[in-house]
Amino acid sequence: MDRPARVLVVDDEPNIRALLSQTLRLVSFEVRTAESGAEAITAAREFGPDLVVLDVMLGDLDGFEVARRLDDSVPVLFLTARDTVEDRVQGLTLGADDYVAKPFSLEEVVLRIRAILRRSRTREEPADRLSYADLELDGAAHEVRRAGVPIDLSPTEFNLLEYLMLNAGRVVSKAQILDNVWRYDFDGDSSIVESYVYYLRKKIPGLIQTVRGVGYTLRAPR
Length: 222
Fold this sequence. Notes:
Layout (H helix, E strand, L loop, with lengths): L5 E5 L3 H13 L3 E5 L2 H11 L3 E5 L7 H7 L6 E5 L4 H8 L5 E4 L4 H16 L7 E4 L2 E4 L4 E4 L2 E2 L4 H12 L7 H9 L8 H13 L4 E4 L3 E4 L4
Parallel strand pairs: 1-2, 1-3, 3-4, 4-5
Antiparallel strand pairs: 6-7, 7-8, 8-9, 10-11
Keywords: DNA-binding, Phosphoprotein
Protein name: Response regulator transcription factor
Organism: Nonomuraea longicatena
């Protein structure tokens, strides 16, 4: 991409909007802002952002509803004051690529934006077909089935499951998952891994095992 990356910042707090937009422009992003959900949807259509920084708590539509209405190909970084696994899951399952809990550091937001954009530009070729137990993943068709029944996964859930299936039977740490699925080149918050594993287990029960103090593994129950 020759032009600067375009970032749409959506927040109904003027101070946060101004702080984020000024910071992102200083590090060479092209920025547009929106203060409401309705304005964000219009701005996304007109501006064509490469990424949306989206506050969950907006005055009209909440951030989750805005995310539902955005183009699926546009990465989303949620800003949220909610910091429990259950509260984060709703946004993550809409396909959000990452989240930052308020209050946040500007450096962390910039690092996460760069990591998301790096992932979106350097997607590896997906695995053709993977299978484990009664689970099948078709990388080319971006489909997952269990015992022949389709399972609907967000893009990041799909990437996480693909990584676990590629390493089936081996234990992978949260750091390895962050490196290979989120592609952080900084010390990222491993709680995002916990959030995605939490929800992926609901969709694919019984196969993702926790090895306490080490990480996760895809392993059929005995």
